[in-house]
# Entry
Amino acid sequence: MIELRGVEKSYRRAGERVLACAIDELDVARGEQIAVVGPSGCGKTTLLHVISGLLVPDKGSVKVADTELTQLSESQRDRFRATHLGYVHQSFHLLAPFTALENVLLGALFARGGGKGRAEACALLDRVGLSDRLDHRPSELSVGQQQRVAVARALVNRPAILLADEPLGNQDPETGRQVLALMLEIAAEMDTTVLIVTHDRRTADQMQRVVELPSLRGVGVANA
# Structure
C-alpha cells in the first residue's frame, strides 16, 4: 500500500539546505497498522506529508496505492489525497462555524464532489458515541469529542490509508487510549492501512509494527 525508496526532503535555512526527512526504504502492506517513532526533528511529520502528497521529495520514489505521487501534478495529488487518504491532525482542524455532522460531511464533499455521504457520516458519528452531538459546534464539544469528530471525518470515505499525526497529543491518557482503540477497530473493519506518528510508546505498543526513524542531527545534504 505504501512503498518509499531513497526519499529525501530538505528545506533552506540561512542559505543552507537542511535535511528534513530521509527514508532509504519503507514498505507498508494493505491493512497494516504502523507506528512511526523517533526523536524530535527526525522527520516524522514530514514523512506523513510526503506520503499524503502535501510535499514532493527532492529525490526518491513515493508509491501509494499503486500510484507514483512524484509523477502527479499538484491538482492530481489533491484529488488523490481526497479520494484515497484520511488524515487526523494533532489539533484536529475542525471548522469552528460548522457542526460535528457538517465537519464530517465536508470530508465526504471534498472526495465525492457532491452532497452524498450523510448516512455514512451519521453512522460513523454514532459509532464514535456522538449521535447526540450532531448539531454541536467544536466549541460546544470536549477535546475528546472533537477528536472523535476528527476520526469520523477522516474515515467517512472509507480511505485506503489513514494517516495520524500525534492524534492523542491533546488527550488525557485514558480518553486517548479509548479513542485510539476505536479508530483502529473501525479502520480494521474497512481494511484501511493506518500510519500513526507518535512520541508515546504506549500508543506505539498498540500498533502491529513500529518503525523508528533515526535522528537527522549532523546528517548533511549532498550537493548543498
Summary: The CA atoms of residues 65 and 133 lie 34 Å apart. The chain has seven helices and nine strands.
